[in-house]
Write a structure and sequence with these properties.
The structure holds two protein chains of two kinds. Chain A is of the alpha/beta class. Chain A has a single domain, classed as Aldehyde Dehydrogenase, Chain A, domain 1 (3-Layer(aba) Sandwich), CATH 3.40.605.10. In chain A, 42% of the residues lie in helices and 18% in strands. Chain A has a five-stranded parallel beta sheet with strand order 7-6-5-8-9, with helices on both faces. In chain A, strands 3-4-10 form a three-stranded antiparallel beta sheet. In chain A, a hairpin with a 5-residue loop joins strand 1 (27-31) and strand 2. Chain B is an alpha/beta fold. Chain B has two domains: 41-279 and 478-498, Aldehyde Dehydrogenase, Chain A, domain 1 (3-Layer(aba) Sandwich); 283-463, Aldehyde Dehydrogenase, Chain A, domain 2 (3-Layer(aba) Sandwich), CATH 3.40.309. In chain B, the strands form five sheets. In chain B, strands 14-15-16-13-12-17-18 form a seven-stranded mixed beta sheet, sandwiched between helices. A six-stranded mixed beta sheet of chain B has the order 9-8-7-10-11-19, with helices on both faces. A three-stranded mixed beta sheet of chain B has the order 1-5-4, covered by helices on one side. In chain B, helix 4 packs parallel to helix 5. The chains are: A alpha/beta, B alpha/beta.
Chain lengths: 288, 499
């Protein structure tokens, strides 16, 4: 029997529930920790980002309209799929320098994080919503409602747990998102996209691009149909200012979480969900 | 739109025109101004004292109902703002944030009570300075101001219950900038939660309506609030910019136009300053054919003509189901003819004066834009006072979604009217502006209210009612209508850091 020549995986992006290559035809090289080429990743363009926002926008109403239980089921399903493909994640993580134990721990933590937020989908409304005792003859209540389309930069240094920690609370709350994967380590993010794609997550709810933050950051911040921007790595003060300025053009919500340790206690809590929620208050008269 | 041609008037008939004037004539019923005192000029309120502005400049404010000068306010410049921030910082570090939360609350309770005691004075001043009908300042603005302080007073020693799993801490010194449409109420929305959470404030009222804020400063002194906890500085945009850009302010809270809100968000770019923004709106009222039409018409009148339409959440777009459109519009026109437009201090007045010459020009500019865009205009026939800034309540029909008068906030007594056939179309039209502050829906069917309500992208949904406010009820916008909420439990988030 002749030796099996391994089939190398082509890593493409994840937009609108499909896996297209970048429209720009550009790529960048991804190396393992021994400086060997392991893949050619897509170098996303501004146009890719705009396509992704369009997908996220069309998916928004349907996803936000899913009931909380259903969203929880789907998040749980993502965790199930991840569990079944843990070997691939671990392999990709060890390739970029994680020890076997570290890789295992990272996948474990990522799966647990998904479960954590899956459990929150039908609870945060009860914890953060309210019935308000107004002094007039009205029934008045406040519900959380998704902010809309969220653009996010996943942390560079934590390519799997960081990405999952960013995406899970955003979609748990009914938002849709466009995420730029870790620039040096994009491969696990595409494997995660494959998990999403087999987990009943409707196409367009999560869109994952690979590429250079330097090129895309300003488009993320400036897009007029994006409602919120999440940044996780502290940018240079110059870029920080620029992003905030661009965000102001449509009063974009800026969510800044400069977290270095995604295992830390404060890297997960329901306030990650409410960061991407609007309070909607409804009044109705009470009477015969 | 069909014409109804009744000639006999029977007020109780559902088909008749409304006619109040020929049955009973309104006699003038002016609220007396004898008991209120307006000084020649007002100084800045910094560190518990009334101090002269460093550059010695003053600007005058007019009564918009007469066009006559009312008084003068000091113009705060950079040095004054610096002084105010220093005093707020000193009060924060040394005293206020260290005070027993219960005691903080008691100061706020005291303010609430003193406001109630002086309610009539504040109401009269609010109408004199801002042009709003005394009926509104007396029955809506000032009672809500007191209620707001009363509500947040109670939160001061209960904050840990508002943020499950977290420890709330005060932010520090808050710079607060408020608009001219609900001058004292917006002051209450800013100061009450800020103080309850242990912050100190530097507040700038709008330049056309600073009178009740300065009166409030006197009340703060009477209430014995520690010096520097509340600082009130008067001035226009430049003064506001000095606050926004001051390095030792930890948080900016702003209520005003989306245009200025964006400038503020931009000015804060790259800093760690917190901010909350309460910006413009273009509220839609969706009227279904199964709605109680007469109630809906009253609701529409209140939604757009309340406070001359100077309301960020005003229901300025009517989206009415085609089958009842003619009927609703006719009833609306009839009702509009009964509105009393005039002296804000007259207790019969429904619609008062436009707040300033500037705003008077803006609204008129939009009427012109609307007509140029092809809208049909309908206005009350009422007589307007000879002096002051008044605009007749106005309907614009035959408008389309892309018209500027449909997309942009006019902030005046101007209602645009569109029709729809299906619920989806109504929702799409309602959501199709950059704003998301408030919307209304009128229908007799409960399930429809919840469905429509869940699809409306706005921070407030008024169902079979409109323009209702309460301190326990969070208020604030989606999209370009702002960031954060004011009022209620959720309103506390804007004034704490969570650890």
């Amino acid at each position: 029997m002749s030796e099996h020549l391994e089939i190398l995986k082509t890593y493409k992006m994840y937009i609108g529930g499909a896996f297209p290559r970048t429209e720009s035809g550009r790529f960048y090289k991804v190396f393992n920790n021994e400086d060997e080429l392991i893949a050619n990743a897509c170098l996303a363009s501004r146009k890719d980002f705009r396509n992704a926002v369009e997908s996220a926008r069309s998916a928004f109403s349907g996803w936000n309209g899913r009931n909380a239980y259903n969203r929880g089921q789907i998040l749980y399903r993502i965790a199930e799929m991840m569990e079944s493909r843990r070997n691939e994640f671990e392999k990709e993580l060890t390739a970029i320098g994680f020890t076997t134990n570290e890789a295992r721990a990272d996948v474990n933590a990522s799966i647990d994080r998904l479960i954590y937020y899956a459990g929150w989908t039908d609870k945060y409304q009860q914890v953060f919503g309210s019935v308000n005792p107004v002094a007039s003859s009205h029934f008045n209540f406040s519900l959380m409602d998704a902010t809309g389309v969220v653009a996010a930069f996943a942390p560079d240094a934590s390519p799997l747990l960081g990405l999952v920690s960013v995406v899970a609370p955003i979609i748990a709350g009914g938002n849709t998102c466009v995420v730029l994967a870790s620039e040096p380590y994009p491969l696990v993010s595409i494997t995660f996209a494959e998990v999403l794609n087999s987990s009943d997550v409707p196409g367009g709810v999560v869109n994952i691009l690979t590429g250079k933050k330097e090129e895309l950051a300003e488009h993320f911040a400036g897009h007029m149909d994006v409602n919120a921007l999440m940044i996780t790595d502290k940018p240079s003060s110059e870029l920080h200012k620029k992003l905030d300025e661009l965000a102001s053009e449509n009063v974009k919500r800026m969510v800044k979480k400069f977290i270095t340790d995604w295992y830390a206690k404060d890297a997960q809590d329901p306030y990650f969900i409410t960061d991407f929620q609007e309070t909607k208050t409804t009044w109705h008269p009470v009477g015969f | 739109m069909s014409e109804t041609t009744e000639t006999t008037y029977k007020p109780t008939s559902p088909n008749s025109k409304l006619d109040f004037a020929s049955v009973w004539e309104y006699d003038p019923a002016p609220e007396s101004t004898d008991h209120v005192e307006v000084k020649e000029k007002y100084e800045l309120f910094i560190d518990g004292k009334f101090v002269k502005p460093s550059k010695g400049r003053y600007f005058s404010t007019t009564n918009p109902a007469t066009g006559k000068k009312l008084t003068e306010f000091a113009e705060a410049t950079q040095k004054d703002i610096d002084k105010a921030v220093k005093s707020a910082r000193k009060a924060f570090e040394g005293e206020w944030s260290e005070l027993a939360p219960k005691t903080r609350g008691k100061y706020l309770f005291r303010i609430a009570r003193m406001l109630q005691e002086r309610a009539r004075e504040f109401a009269v001043l609010e109408s004199m300075d801002g042009g709003k009908p005394i009926r509104e300042s007396r029955d809506v603005d000032i009672p809500l101001v007191a209620a707001h302080f009363f509500y947040y007073a109670g939160w001061a020693d209960k904050l840990e219950y508002a943020f499950p799993g977290k420890t709330p801490e005060p932010i520090g010194v808050c710079g607060q900038i408020i608009p001219w449409n609900f001058p004292l109420l917006m002051l209450a929305w800013k100061i009450a939660p800020a103080l309850a959470c242990g912050n100190t404030v530097v507040l700038k009222p709008a330049e056309t309506t600073s009178l009740t804020a300065m009166k409030f400063a006197e009340l703060v002194k009477d209430a014995g609030v520690p010096d520097g906890v509340i600082n009130i500085v008067t001035g226009a945009g430049q003064t506001g910019a000095e606050i926004v850009n001051h390095k030792d302010i930890d948080k900016i809270a702003f209520t005003g136009s989306t245009r200025v809100g964006k400038i503020i968000q931009q000015s804060l770019a790259g800093t760690d300053k917190r901010y909350s923004l309460e910006l413009g709106g273009k509220g839609a009222m969706i009227i279904f054919e199964d709605a109680p039409i007469d109630q809906a018409v009253e609701g529409i009148i209140n939604a757009i003509f309340f406070n001359q339409g100077h309301v960020c959440c005003a229901g300025s777009r009517l989206i009415v189901q085609e089958s009842v459109a003619d009927k609703v519009v006719q009833k609306l026109k009839d009702r509009m003819q009964t509105l009393v437009v005039g002296d804000p201090l007259d207790k019969n007045t429904d619609v008062g004066a436009i707040n300033s010459e500037n705003q008077f020009n803006t609204v008129n500019k939009y009427l012109e834009i609307g007509i140029n865009e092809g809208a049909d205009i309908y206005q009350c026939d009422c007589e307007l006072p000879a002096d002051g800034y008044f605009i007749r309540p106005t309907l614009l029909t035959n408008v389309s979604q892309s018209n500027r008068v449909v997309q942009e906030e006019i902030f005046g007594p101007v209602l645009t009217i569109q029709t729809f056939r299906t619920a989806d179309e109504a929702i799409t039209k309602a959501n199709n502006t950059p704003y998301g502050l408030a919307n209304g829906v009128w229908t007799d069917k409960g399930s429809k209210i919840f469905k429509i309500g869940s699809k409306l992208r706005s921070g407030v949904v008024w169902a079979n009612t409109y323009n209702k406010f309460d301190p326990t009820s969070p208020f604030g916008g989606y999209k370009e209508s702002g960031v954060g909420r004011e009022g209620g439990l959720q309103g506390l988030s804007a004034y704490v850091n969570l650890k």
